[in-house]
Amino acid sequence: MLIDTFGRRAVDLRVSLTDRCNLRCTYCMPAEGLDWLPKPNLLTDEEIIRLVRIAVTDLGVTEVRFTGGEPLLRPGLVGIVAACAELSPRPELSLTTNGLGLSRTASALREAGLDRVNVSLDTLDPASFHTLTRRDRLADVIAGLAAAETAGLRPVKINTVLMRGVNDHEAADLLGWCLERGYELRFIEQMPLDAQHGWDRSTMVTAEEILARLGERFALTPEPDERRGAAPAERWLVDGWTMADGGPARVGVIASVTRPFCRACDRTRLTADGQIRNCLFAREETDLRGALRDGADDAVIAALWRAAMWGKKAGAGIDNPDFLQPDRPMSAIGG
Question: What CATH number should be reported for the domain whose range is 12-333?
Answer without folding.
Answer: 3.20.20.70
